[in-house]
């Protein structure tokens, strides 16, 4: 027997209503993004650093890259470090654009493509969430912290402000969470989102160039191996898979304007609970 509050028709209709994209609410998005990033940072930094394992994994990964013939990080690092203005610029790029561009793309999609916003945001959240598994199960030292490989810690050498990876701020962040690279995961999310949604050819080109430039930067500053970038790409693929499974289409395939105009069921339930309190 079905209870008074759970009619079969209501149950069948609930899932499509939950999946239907709605116009995002700015207060909810700010709260959600803030809490989510705080939680992500808390969990990431709470993962045991496991220094010995992280260094051993870095040696193993470096040997694997040499076997594959792609271990050019050392040469790139030293070549860029010899050009002061270039390496300092890359240091600031690494420390700032990771956040600035990602937030900028979120705001752009929120403002001009509200029907695609929730699905696009879900890709980013799922990508970031699954990365925590890599930090926990595969602690990895970045090249700049390896023993006996003579990588240059460009932030430390050039006294660049702003990086959580070196200098006085390094104790605020887990230094052995290099795999996967969320600099690549997030920048590729930005680039693909811009390429898929933007109408101006120059914007689409810049969208594709952004993750390429980020890849060069993370290697040149000795913060990541090439294979860390591959890990970030796999996480992003997972994020797109989760979003497509929930919404039934990739974000850019959804309508630009949301079709559902009523309040989201979860939001409505929360508001009703507060009203009844």
UniProtKB/TrEMBL annotation:
Q: Where are the transmembrane segments?
A: 26-43, 92-110, 122-138, 176-198, 205-223
Membrane topology recorded in Swiss-Prot or TrEMBL: Multi-pass membrane protein
Q: Give the location in the cell.
A: Membrane
Pfam families listed in its UniProt record: PAP2_3
Pull one GO CC term from this UniProt entry.
Answer: membrane
UniProt keyword annotations, A-Z: Membrane, Transmembrane, Transmembrane helix
Q: Where is the Inositolphosphotransferase Aur1/Ipt1 domain?
A: 60-240
Its recorded name reads Membrane protein
